[in-house]
Design a protein that fits this description.
With 148 residues, this protein is mainly α. Among the domains are: 56 residues; 43 residues, no CATH class. It contains 7 helices and 3 strands; from the N terminus they run H-H-H-E-H-H-E-E-H-H. The protein has a 3-stranded antiparallel sheet. The protein is rod-shaped and about 95 Å long. The mean pLDDT is 81.
């Protein structure tokens, strides 16, 4: 994959338009050297030739957005990024995290919490039944006491 296309994966079409506008401003500046003008023209051509179908249309989140969605701190999220739990990329000095990874992680956490709740309920029911059996409580009383 071309480096430009790879970089554009996390840049929206609106941002690309703003970049082109800034490049146009540089071209208008009299102090811009001929060498820089050639480089700008080449870059603008590359941007214009970059087909949006080449660009990954996944949604990317800032670390703060991802942390808020997951109801965790940003430092905890960044630890998970370093541990490889999320697909992340750098845009300059800034991180971006793949939104679908955040959704998958949230779904997995919810499923794990539900499984834990169900396991605790089963364990509690089993303990209650054993207590009722050990106390030799009749069925009606065990039901009334919530032991069955």
């Amino acid at each position: 994959m071309n480096v430009l296309v790879e970089a554009l994966q996390v840049v929206s079409p609106g941002d690309r338009a703003r970049v082109k506008s800034k490049l146009d401003e540089l071209m208008q500046d009299r102090n811009t050297s001929a060498e820089l003008r050639r480089a700008i023209e080449q870059f603008k051509t590359n941007i214009e030739n970059c087909d949006d179908s080449d660009v990954n249309q996944e949604e990317w989140l800032t670390p703060n957005q991802a942390a808020n969605k997951l109801m965790m701190s940003r430092p905890m999220l960044m630890k998970l990024v370093r541990d490889g739990r999320f697909t992340a990329t750098k845009v300059g000095a800034h991180n971006r995290i793949l939104a679908s990874d955040v959704e998958e992680y949230a779904t997995a956490r919810l499923r794990a919490a539900e499984d834990l709740r169900d396991a605790r309920a089963r364990a509690s029911q089993t303990r209650s039944s054993r207590i009722a059996d050990q106390l030799d409580v009749d069925e009606a009383l065990a039901e009334e006491l919530g032991l069955r």
